[in-house]
Fold this sequence. Notes:
Blueprint: E1 14-18, H1 23-39, E2 42-49, H2 56-72, E3 77-83, H3 94-112, E4 117-119, H4 124-136, H5 141-144, E5 150-153, E6 156-159, H6 167-176, H7 193-208, H8 212-241, E7 242-243, E8 246-248, H9 249-252, H10 257-272, H11 278-287, E9 294-298, E10 301-306, E11 309-314, H12 316-323, E12 327-330, E13 336-340, E14 345-352, H13 359-362, E15 365-368, E16 375-376, E17 385-386, H14 387-394, E18 405-408, E19 411-415, E20 419-420, E21 432-439
Helix pairs in contact: 1-6, 4-7, 4-8, 8-10
Residues 18-20, 22-25, 46-48, 102, 120-122, 126, 184, 187 line the site of adenosine-5'-triphosphate.
Amino acid sequence: MAASATPPSADSLCVAVAASGGRDSTALLYATARAAQALGLRVLALHVHHGLLPEADAWVEHLRRQCADWSGQGLPVTLRWCRLDGSPKRGESIEAWARRGRYAALARMACEEEASLVLLAHHRRDQAETFMLQALRGSGMAGLAAMPKQIVRDGVLWARPWLQQPSEAVEVYVHSHGLSFVQDPSNDDLSFARNRLRHHVMPALTAAFAHTEQALCAAARQAQQARECLQALAELDLAKVEEGSALRLPALEMFPVARRVNVLRHWLGQRCGRGPSESLLQRLVQELPGDSPAQWTVGGHVLRRYRGLLRCEPACSASILLNASRQQAISVAEAGCYHLSGWGGSLRVKPVAEAGVALSRLQDCCLRERSGGEQFQRSPHSIPRSLKKQYQAEGVPSWQRGGPLLWHGDALLFVPGLGIDARLWAPPGTPQFALEWVSDTAG
Ligand SMILES: Nc1ncnc2c1ncn2[C@@H]1O[C@H](COP(=O)(O)OP(=O)(O)OP(=O)(O)O)[C@@H](O)[C@H]1O
């Protein structure tokens, strides 16, 4: 291999390789360092110590020595590593926590080192296993698409240059270059689904169907394309049924079931951060048609049907209000935005020419939850009506009716969604202020 005439400087372009110390990433790191030497690039080996196994300290030491040796031989490689701290969130598996932490740490280290490309050493067998695991979980196209060859995420281009290479080719490379690597004992732990698949299922499948790996990888590639098509269709359909942040249900129901499910999956994925389960989607298709107000829980979100619209909001908006203190004195001395964390929102106070309230009334107020039986007068020419009737007349959705209500003494002064009670409006021509309630979860 030809070596570059001048060794790379600190300013040279940098390629990062995610290095576990295992066989595959050791091979990829070595191959990348040799190619980089010829091209005058720098290579950064990025390692994450998960803090889970006693062997992990020795793996860092192994990588440190290996990179130092290779560097001594003229290869432009340096090691950067970090140790994860923290622990899995409630309900999160150790594997999921380690994966999440690992990718976040790799992205952070790559960005700090100004390496915009990070190589991962997954190969064809890893891809075939991923496809099988997803199929065995009953995943849809997104899961069956398995691992992308490349993807931009967290400001980094992640690439898997060996995704179509058989594991055996990596084995041969490692032997021919006499590379040493570490063995992760957890790769033999049969409590992990991937290990059961690798040790028991894949050998049997390959014995019965020689092209198992190639066929599964081809299926993953087709699933990737199918997923892209479904996404494009969902965008087109969504444009026809979206109204602001809500969906128009009558328009949605015009679509055949499969397209309806596709739109819902896409829309909920965008709003909730992850796709809904298939069972929930099937339930929604059955239950969404209807006129009466209804709601469904989707992970940490609440899906609400009201007057032909479907909205999706973080569930905390409801619980914040339920947990709020039932009564809180407040005093407003000037225009501004007053955040009331216990109530899950802010009260905005701004000057207006009419239909406002005098500042003197706002200096001695009280926030209370709705308790029932309150009366509200919309304008000087109307009569006081129950809040329920006023809400209905104004089309305020049921989940925005929980308060907080603002009282001045025994007089109901302000109701979010309805405004200031006309009986407390300041006389025309005097200084006055409008009120608005802005929920923390709005927008
Ligand atoms: N602790 C780690 N630090 C940095 N990168 C890692 C780490 N663990 C995994 N990777 C990256 O993710 C890829 C896939 O991980 P996986 O757990 O399947 O591999 P491995 O068994 O740890 O090791 P290898 O793929 O190197 O044989 C690795 O090839 C490597 O590029």
